[in-house]
């Protein structure tokens, strides 16, 4: 569904991403992991075309370079790590922004746009909050509202940059379960960056480990989350054991590195 | 009962309130003046001006002429200029995502000021040179700030652009002061224009109207796009919007509005901050609400401001810019405090 080859991004003098490949099949959940500054967020932005990049990106079956911005926005929805929610905007109006790729430049939302937004809000249990101002929401509610905006876009691919930032344990779980449920129900392709390795291994079908702008490893969670790879690239001493469902669980070991 | 959800738009009640305020301030603006005319006579006379309506207001032809040739165009120019400045302010605020953005912060007014001063001093004999100069100056000022902001680094985003605008404003104002001191004999004319004036009659109104119409329509049409921009350039980009293009269009439209306002009436400050801020507090933050209501509210505000300017030290007149600054400067500090508190 998404494939990128030889993606490189230069920000100023620094090469933030160099020669990264990414392949995600339809309906798959791919988690991008790596230490701080490895280029995880930049990779998502490069796929979206939000930063100047070199390399090939194919979305669906078409090269991204051939897509107009509106066409691309109907294929891929993106939520940044710290989304800006205008504090005065209502939840409904914010989610309605997701319909932008379907509305003519100076046009206005159709009845269809409103009903899609309403049903997305209902699906995420946000109907009650529809007229609430974004500035009055809790962290967990904000996360769901941002997800609602992305889903209103009705794009088959979701790129989510750290969707669990600033959420407590319970809300992290709720957010990830919700994404997983929507993914299975609608056959969405999901790419997230995640900084919690165990969580990444638990939810994703495939992991991509980035280190210093390069792909250090890619594959199923058990192939990528090894003591050797994690220890080397995160500069950490860890113990990794299979959890109850066979997926790897990463423990920190005291006294290291 | 759950309210029917719909996209943000100005509620009819607010539109009616704003229009009512505008009507009242316009009648008040027509009433005041040296000649003694009763409110009822003004209303009757206004009805008489309407096509196909004939009402005897009991006013002498001289008084009718006074109303029609002096007070009416003055009130209308004040309304148009106020509406333009408030809308331009709202537009700049949307473009720069900064509630303190204003025609005066971005080099637009300073550019117009410099160009107009140059026109007064260097081309005193060329009729009609002031509006053209003001327009070119305003667009030039904003473009200078825009280019400077872009070359200073895209990473800085909106803050860089506003800082660039401040730098451009200082620089252009310095040149303007140089030119005006250079030709001291024109000082009086320059000062009269700088401090603002809406008493130029019908000619002044016809001059501003085409620019006003074009820029208002452009700005009002971009309400939804400014709402999209309010989530930031990156997210707007991910929604398929070419953020840079939208910003440039709104920037041009707001600069055209600024130039039109500055060309006819000089530098009238703070309308662009005060009115959109009040609208946002009262009626809602969406630009589909802020733009139209700012237009009406700005018009009412400047008509009232002009009324105050004409009456406080009658028979002498205050420049209208002094009145708006008197209200606007403390207001600016208040907005600054609220904004900073929200940011921390």
UniProtKB/TrEMBL annotation, chain A:
PANTHER family in the cross-refs: HEMIN IMPORT ATP-BINDING PROTEIN HMUV
GO molecular function: ATP binding; ATP hydrolysis activity
Entry keyword annotation includes Translocase: yes
Name under which the protein is recorded: Iron complex transport system ATP-binding protein
PROSITE patterns (alphabetical): ABC_TRANSPORTER_1 (PS00211), ABC_TRANSPORTER_2 (PS50893)
Residue span(s) of domain ABC transporter: 2-237
Key words, A-Z: ATP-binding, Nucleotide-binding, Translocase, Transport
Alphabetical list of Pfam families matching this protein: ABC_tran
Keyword Cell inner membrane set for record: no
Gene3D superfamilies, A to Z: P-loop containing nucleotide triphosphate hydrolases (3.40.50.300)
UniProt superkingdom: Bacteria
UniProt-listed InterPro entries: AAA+_ATPase (IPR003593), ABC_transporter-like_ATP-bd (IPR003439), ABC_transporter-like_CS (IPR017871), P-loop_NTPase (IPR027417)
Organism: Nonomuraea fuscirosea
Automatic annotation (TrEMBL), chain B:
Region forming the signal peptide: none
Subcellular location: Cell membrane
InterPro entries assigned to the protein according to its UniProt record, in alphabetical order: ABC_BtuC-like, ABC_transptr_permease_BtuC
Keyword list, A-Z: Cell membrane, Membrane, Transmembrane, Transmembrane helix, Transport
SUPFAM superfamilies membership: ABC transporter involved in vitamin B12 uptake, BtuC (SSF81345)
GO molecular function, one term: transmembrane transporter activity
A Pfam family reported for this protein in Swiss-Prot or TrEMBL: FecCD
Name of the featured protein: Iron complex transport system permease protein
């Amino acid at each position: 569904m998404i494939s990128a080859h030889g993606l490189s991004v230069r920000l100023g003098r620094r090469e933030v991403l160099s020669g990264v490949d990414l392949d995600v099949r339809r309906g798959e959940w791919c988690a991008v992991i790596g230490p701080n500054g490895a280029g995880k967020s930049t990779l998502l932005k490069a796929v979206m075309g939000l930063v100047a990049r070199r390399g090939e990106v194919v979305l669906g079956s078409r090269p991204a370079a051939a897509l107009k911005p509106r066409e691309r926005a109907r294929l891929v929805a993106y939520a940044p790590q710290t989304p800006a929610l205008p504090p005065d905007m209502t939840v409904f109006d914010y989610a309605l922004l997701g319909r932008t790729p379907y509305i003519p430049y100076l046009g206005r939302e159709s009845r269809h746009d409103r009903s899609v937004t309403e049903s997305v809000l209902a699906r995420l249990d946000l109907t009650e909050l529809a007229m609430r101002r974004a500035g009055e929401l809790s962290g967990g509610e904000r996360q769901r509202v941002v997800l609602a905006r992305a889903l209103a876009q009705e794009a088959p691919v979701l790129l989510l940059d750290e969707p669990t930032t600033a959420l407590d344990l319970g809300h992290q779980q709720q957010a990830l379960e919700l994404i997983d449920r929507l993914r299975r129900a609608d056959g969405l392709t999901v790419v997230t960056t995640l900084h919690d390795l165990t969580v990444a291994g638990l939810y994703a079908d495939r992991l991509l480990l980035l280190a210093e702008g390069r792909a250090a490893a890619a594959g199923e969670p058990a192939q990528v989350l090894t003591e050797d790879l994690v220890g080397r690239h995160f500069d950490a001493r860890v113990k990794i054991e299979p959890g109850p469902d066979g997926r790897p669980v990463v423990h920190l070991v005291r006294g290291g590195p | 009962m759950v309210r029917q959800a719909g996209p943000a738009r100005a509620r009819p009640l607010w539109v009616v309130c704003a229009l009512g305020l505008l009507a009242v301030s316009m009648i008040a603006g027509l009433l005041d003046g040296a000649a003694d005319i009763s409110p009822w006579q003004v209303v009757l006379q206004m009805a008489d001006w309407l096509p196909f309506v004939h009402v005897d207001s009991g006013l002498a032809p001289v008084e009718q002429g006074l109303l029609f040739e002096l007070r009416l165009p003055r009130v209308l120019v004040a309304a148009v200029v106020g509406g333009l400045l408030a809308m331009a302010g709202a537009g700049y605020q949307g473009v720069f995502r900064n509630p303190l953005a204003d025609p005066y912060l971005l080099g637009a007014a300073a550019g117009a000021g410099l160009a107009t001063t140059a026109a007064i001093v260097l081309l005193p004999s060329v009729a009609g040179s002031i509006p053209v100069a003001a327009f070119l100056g305003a667009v030039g000022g904003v473009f200078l700030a825009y280019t400077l902001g872009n070359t200073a680094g895209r990473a800085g985003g909106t803050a860089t652009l506003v800082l660039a605008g401040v730098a451009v404003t200082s620089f252009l104002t310095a040149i303007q002061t140089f030119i005006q001191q250079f030709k001291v004999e024109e000082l009086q004319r320059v000062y009269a224009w700088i401090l603002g004036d809406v008493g130029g009659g019908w000619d002044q109104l016809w001059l501003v109207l085409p620019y006003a119409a074009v820029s208002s329509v452009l700005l009002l049409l971009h309400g939804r796009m400014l709402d999209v921009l309010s989530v930031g350039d990156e997210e707007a980009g991910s929604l398929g919007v070419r953020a840079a293009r939208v910003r440039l269009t709104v920037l041009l439209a707001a600069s055209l509005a600024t130039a039109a306002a500055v060309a006819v009436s000089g530098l009238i400050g703070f309308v662009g901050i005060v009115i959109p801020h009040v609208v946002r507090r009262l009626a809602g933050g969406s630009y589909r609400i802020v733009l139209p209501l700012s237009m009406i509210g700005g018009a009412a505000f400047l008509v009232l401001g002009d009324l105050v300017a004409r009456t406080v030290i009658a028979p002498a007149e205050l420049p209208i810019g002094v009145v708006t600054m008197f209200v606007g400067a403390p207001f600016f500090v208040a907005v600054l405090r609220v904004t900073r508190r929200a940011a921390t």
